Amino acid sequence: MRWKVMKTKALGTDDSVTVLDIRSELMTAVHPIDGQVRMVDEKRHTTSSCQSINRESNIMQTTTKCAHRGHHALSPVFFLCAGIGLSTSLNATLHADTLSVCQDGSCDFVDIQSALDAANVKDVIEVSGETYLLSAPIKIFKNITLRGTIDTVTGELLTRLDGQDQTEAMWCIAVGPDTVLDQLVFQNGRSEVCGGLWTNAASPTVINCTFENNSAVGQGRGTVRNQGGNPSFSNCRFINNASEELGAGMYNEGGASPTLTDCTFMNNSSITVGGGMFNVRGSAPVLTNCSFTNNSAASGGGIYNDFNSSPFLTNCTFTGNSAQNGGGMYSFAESTPTLTNCVFSGNTSEESGAGMSNWECQAILNQCIFTSNHAGDEGGGMYNTAGSTSQLVGCLFEGNSAELRGGGMYTSSSELSLVECTFTNNSVSSSIGKGGGMYNRQSQGTLTRCTFIGNSSPKKGAGMCNISSNPVMDDCTFEANSAEEGGGMFNQSGSSPALTDCRFIGNSVQERGGGMYNSGGFPTLTGCRFTDNSAEFGGGMYNSTSSPEITGCQFTSNSADSGGGVYSSFGTLLLTATVVCENPGGQIVGPVANGGGNCISHTCVDSDGDGTPDCNVPDDLNLQVPDEYSTISNAIDAAAEGAIITIAGGTYQPERPLELFGKSITLRGSVNAEGAPITILDGQDTLQLIRCNNEEDSTTVFENLVIQNGRTDTSGGGMHLYRSSPSLINCVFRSNTAETGGGGMHLYRSSPSLTNCVFMSNSAATGGGMHNDRSSPSLINCVFESNTAETGGGMHNEYSYSFILTNCTFSLNVADSGGGMYNYESSPILTECLVVNNAADYGGGIYSHYSSTPLLGGTSVCENAPNQVFGDFTDQGGNCINDVCNESCAFVTCPADIDGDAVVGAKDLTELIARWGCIVDPPGFNCAEADLNEDGTVDGADLTVLLNSWGVCQYRPPS
Questions:
Q1: Does domain 896-953 have CATH number 1.10.1330.10?
Q2: What is the radius of gyration, based on Cα positions, of the chain?
Q3: The pTM is what?
């Protein structure tokens, strides 16, 4: 078809006018009476439309069919085509008429399509308030207004376009914003194109319309399907629509960028994705004040964004939507949704992202709220994964929940930026749940001025849980969060977050790490504060195989059974310029590397007003317990280097294991007149009593102490040494228990010195009295008596070489192997020692194997059952190894041992009392056995001898 601009004259006048000539199958003519230009198909001679010539302005004006207005027809008739190009080019200069449609024949037209065909650009078609049953879609190719009827009292829309479940209602093709659809109901549409309205490269204006009960089937897309163009929708409702594939309510593709204002999407459902709306291939819809309620899909119950789509939402709400993933919204494949002041409330997902789910995309959120959303697995409020780089500013996550991980937010393999966001009262419910507020896995990201308050987790990380993640956090707060472990934050699998000026306040756990729990990794904390957090172990912080670096921080008023401030196990805490004070349960438990400038004290009193608690005062070198300090722990905290803590006689029951934090101080108990210690540390069979984990050396001294009834489910019921070598003098370890090694004492890579110490009635799996692992202790005049174990009743040695025992005694110890001593790849040196009267299944005295060759010199090994030495040993001379302890091998100086069991104890006392007052001459009732001083009478003098001999009989090697 060719178009030509030409000059012509109106019939009956001399006025020149401009018309468009079509040189094809269409012809033009001017009516002789009314001056109208007709367009007609030359072959069919059918009227297309009429064009009126304004003689004054030379403007062509389009009208409806002439026959409908009572105009005279031409024969032959000539038509001018009102095509797309013509309609567009004349749009600004044509005036509008109003046409009417009703089905009873009283209007201009009885059906809508006829009115549209006849209408000219900018005409208004008013449709009666009836239901129009459609068998084919209405097609609009020009800029007109199609307006339905509304009940002015109730506001109900009365004009309904009904697809009868067999067709979509309408097509809009290549029209602009001057095509207006107003006050219409699109219902019961059904097709493989869309359910209700299809706009193709078109930008109609849709006002106050309702789309309900429409279905897109097969490859159909959405109730409203926008392919390109920029349509606008105002005050429209999308209700109860369905799609077998994508976007039940609206489907936008091919760069379509519709504008939606005050629109509602409710109860729409898609079998696959996008219950309310689906955006794909660069679509960028703009939504303002819109709501998505109770929509559902497999993914993206409210909205699904796919393949580089970029929706913009302001003041929108997502409520009660549901999906398997992304109940409220799901964004995928480099989509970049931007949301401002939007609310996600009460949405659900069977798996992840009840509020919002982001997969390989960049969501930008400002001042948005996520509340009361629930995910079956992960990410109650939000789920991020697959390299998402979302940015959130001023957002609130409140009361969201998930079954497994991330009640508020879940992030995996992503890098997020959060500024001034708040996570409050979010939770996970499973017994293995982690990350009540936030869960991060293999993720980075930054958090600035964010707050985590009142979140909860049955297992780990109520505020935040990091797994192989390294978030950077500045000026953040963790307060009143609660979990089993890691109330404020839980870091695991090498997680090394970096925190600056953050606060952990009032967080609590049932077990470890009230404020923070670190398992592996190297977290760094600068200028952070831990206050009023609580736990069983590590009120402020708990470290397990982790080595955090802490600089310029404060730990105050935190509480725990052990390690109120910090508890560290199998890792090294580097502490620099940090204050740790007034933490019930002890300031620090475990190894600490002192970076200098620290203040560790049982009190936070600042008498000189310098802003630092008074601690490590140089002249505080003599401390008294209980006169000055009520507990030994408080005295240790207050002691300066070189201080002596004197502990009065009596029984003390520590609330936690005693630790000296690497200080060079002396813990000195009291003794009786005979020099026996009378200061008793009693663990009540509930806790390990002493730990040295901070590389203590010989300047750390334990003296005159009875260490009894300690218990641990690991190693070292009485005392545990880890890479530490303190000095022990005149100490007694009795009735302590360990589940694994070292009932009395356990050593790992340690070299303590022990002088005049006794290990009595202790028990463990290995080393009832002492277990040495890669250690080299020095023992002088020590006694191991009546200890029990599976291996090494008295002592168990493994990978421990060339350590020396001098004048030590092993007696009455019992084990399966090595009653007195068990050696595994160990070669201790025994000089002038006694190994007597011990019992085992193998090696009653000494059991050695796997390259073990103990060295024995001047040592007696006798009366052990079933044999004296099992395995190799090196004889350095002067030894006596015999099945019987006699004067040729060893003799006993023990006159008070009435019953002959080599122990002066309760049995001997009973025998003496039974013979009380007995006269030797004449003899009677074996009186001589109890006449210890041989004065002829059993009386108080004999009792004194017995009491002074109380304990194990001393075996001596032959002279």
A1: yes
A2: 46
A3: 0.71
